[in-house]
Each structure stands twice: as structure tokens, then as C-alpha cells.
Amino acid sequence: MRVLGIDPGLTRCGLGVVDSSGGRAMSLVAVGVARSATDLPIAERLHAIGTEIDAWLDLHRPDAVAVERVFSQHNVRTVMGTAQVSGVAMVAAARRGLPVALHTPSEVKAAVSGSGRADKAQVAAMVVRLLRLDATPKPADASDALALAICHVLRGGAQSRIDAALAAARATRRQGTLA
User: Fold this and answer.
1) pTM: predicted TM-score of the whole model, two decimal places
2) What pLDDT, on a 0 to 100 scale, did the predictor assign at position 159?
3) What positions belong to coiled-coil segments (predicted)?
4) CA-closest candidate to residue 157, choices 90, 101, 108, 114
């Protein structure tokens, strides 16, 4: 199973792709960050991030997409941008018929490190260990995206396969009605 993890952010949106052939054996496919300039209008920033997410979906062809669930923060402006980018990511995946899973930060921490209260450094260290990397991906958004993908492999693999099968069945039915 191939999973694209997305750590949504308006300035930096982490993107990480992980392959798994089952169990805990995982490998890094790609990691990076989509960026948008802070001096652009919000619509253009969302378009820039969306274009990059589309390119990653087309290039890496994941079986599922894992997005960090937006939670309430003290800075409303930050949470709004994060929520908007999450929506862009979910729509991009839905257009391709891909299942999308939302994982909370504590779910990701627990799945990757064993503790829902782990700090960023502990999670990053486990990302390096689980993917057998030489160094922690930078910036932190990139490492967080890989943690999301890993979390999904460890927690959501079975559900993703069910969702993918249902999506394929829906697509087949739609094609049958168009013919």
C-alpha cells in the first residue's frame, strides 16, 4: 500500500509518501514541502498548494491519503489556513477516487512512537528509525507528513483497502451508467 501523508499548512504543507508491503516494513518514496508566498491573496496561496498536491498525487499514485485532522488552536488565523489547505487536499484526493483518512496529532504520535504525548523530536526520531533514513527530513512539516503516512499504514491499512474497494466499485457502476 502506498500512502501520501499531508501535514496541512498555508505557508508550508508537508508531503510524504510511504510504501508498505504489509506489517511494519515501510520505505520512503518521497518527501517534501509545498510552499505559498505569504504576500499572495489567500485564493492564490490555496491554488499554489493545491497544484503541488495534484502533482504529487499524479506522480506518486498513492492508494490512500492521510491528512492531519485540524484541531482548535489559539490562533484562529492559523487554524483557518490549515483547515482550508486540508479541504484542498481532501478534494484533490476525492477527485481521483482515493480514500482519505483524518488522523489527530495524538493518534499520529501514539502510532509512530507509542505515546500520544510524544514530542516532535521523539516522533521525528521514530520516522527516521521506521523508514531506515540517515537523517530527519527537514523542515518539520516534511517529517510530520511522513509520520501521518506511517500512522495510516499502521492504523488504517485495513480500512483503506475496504474504502479503496468500495471506491472502485462505485467507479465501475458510474462507468456502466455512462456507457
Assistant:
1) 0.86
2) 59
3) none
4) 101
